[in-house]
């Protein structure tokens, strides 16, 4: 039985699989970072010491400092808040059981926040939280 001597020379290492993996990781992180920032507006939330974590299943409504209202990525007029909340919850009965998280800019008028509160109460929604940032 003959034992082969080790071959001299260098082993060739292909860079293509490594480049593929790096590219896939880059695409993954770009997509997940884009999905993580779900705010439609750049909001400066009001400060509060009495904050708590919001319900993870809550419907999120945002109010910009100039009074625009967004439900998810779309901007909705004040008159359509109730219908939009019912549609987002999946029906009138589900809307009554749903939780609403209002993310209002600290410079937004209180009247805009109250319009959302009134629309939520009009459809029977009772779980409402106003988002704040810690002091």
Q: What's the overall geometry?
A: elongated
Report the structural category: alpha/beta
Q: Which residues form runs of ≥5 with pLDDT under 50?
A: none
Percent helix: 25-40%
The percentage of residues in β strands lies in: 15-25%
Q: Would you tell me the overall average pLDDT? A: 83
**H/E element string?**
HEEEEHHEHEE
Radius of gyration: 26 Å
Notes on the protein architecture:
The protein is an alpha/beta fold and 135 residues long. It is built from four helices and seven strands; from the N terminus they run H-E-E-E-E-H-H-E-H-E-E. The radius of gyration is 26 Å and the shape is elongated. It starts with 15 loop residues before the first helix and ends with a strand. The model has no long low-confidence stretch (mean pLDDT 83).
Question: Which key terms come to mind for this protein?
Answer:
alpha/beta, Nucleotidyltransferase, domain 5, two-stranded parallel ribbon, 135 residues, single chain, 7 strands
Outline of the structure:
Helices cover about 35% and strands about 20% of the residues. It is an alpha/beta fold.
Give the SSE map:
Layout: H1 16-36, E1 47-48, E2 59-63, E3 69-71, E4 74-76, H2 81-89, H3 92-97, E5 99-104, H4 110-122, E6 127-130, E7 133-134
Parallel strand pairs: 1-7, 2-5, 5-6
Antiparallel strand pairs: 2-3, 3-4
């Amino acid at each position: 039985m003959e034992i082969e001597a080790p071959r001299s020379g260098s082993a060739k290492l292909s860079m293509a699989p490594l480049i593929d993996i790096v590219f896939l990781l880059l695409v993954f992180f770009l997509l997940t970072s884009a999905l993580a920032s779900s705010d439609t507006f750049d909001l400066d939330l009001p400060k509060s010491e009495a904050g708590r974590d919001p319900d993870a299943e809550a419907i999120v409504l945002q109010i910009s400092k100039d009074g625009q209202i967004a439900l998810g990525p779309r901007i909705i007029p004040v008159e359509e808040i109730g219908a939009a909340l019912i549609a987002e919850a999946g029906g009138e009965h589900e809307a009554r059981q749903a939780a609403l998280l209002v993310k209002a800019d600290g410079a937004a008028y209180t009247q805009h926040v109250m319009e959302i509160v009134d629309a939520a109460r009009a459809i029977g929604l009772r779980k409402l939280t106003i988002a704040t940032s810690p002091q």
